[in-house]
Design goal:
The protein is mainly beta. The strands form 2 sheets. Strands 2, 4, 5, 6, 9, 10 and 11 form a 7-stranded mixed sheet that branches. The protein starts with a strand and ends with a strand.
């Protein structure tokens, strides 16, 4: 059984940074594309960033140049480094196994002064 567990969310001031982590268990991790999504109150869940097994990355236009997705296959971890955060980044952030459709429980990110 695949399990994804996110961590690293919290409250941060505008302009600040956070690093989200996603730990995967029960899976052959290295061959699957992974992604981060987010869902703000009253809005649909949206794709933030994705990374392939070969470490090719893609980003939503709204986060390009500010967020960086990475992975450590040996540790079965996916990361999302978020810099220059603004209030529009406030959302629950979810880790996703893109190939098989597994989701984590989400971690709350709140950007506020």
């Amino acid at each position: 059984q695949v399990r994804l567990v996110e961590s690293g969310g919290g409250l941060v001031q505008p302009g600040g940074s956070l690093r989200l982590s996603c730990a995967a268990s029960g899976t052959i991790f290295s061959i699957y594309a992974m992604a981060w999504y987010r869902q703000a109150p009253g809005k649909q869940r949206e794709l933030v960033a994705a990374i392939t097994s070969g470490r090719s990355t893609s980003y939503a236009d709204s986060v390009k140049g500010r967020f960086t997705i990475s992975r450590d296959n040996a540790k079965k971890m996916v990361y999302l480094q978020m810099n220059s955060l603004n209030p529009e980044d406030t959302a629950v952030y979810y880790c996703n196994d893109q190939a098989r459709g597994y989701w984590g429980q989400g971690t709350q990110v709140t950007v506020s002064s």
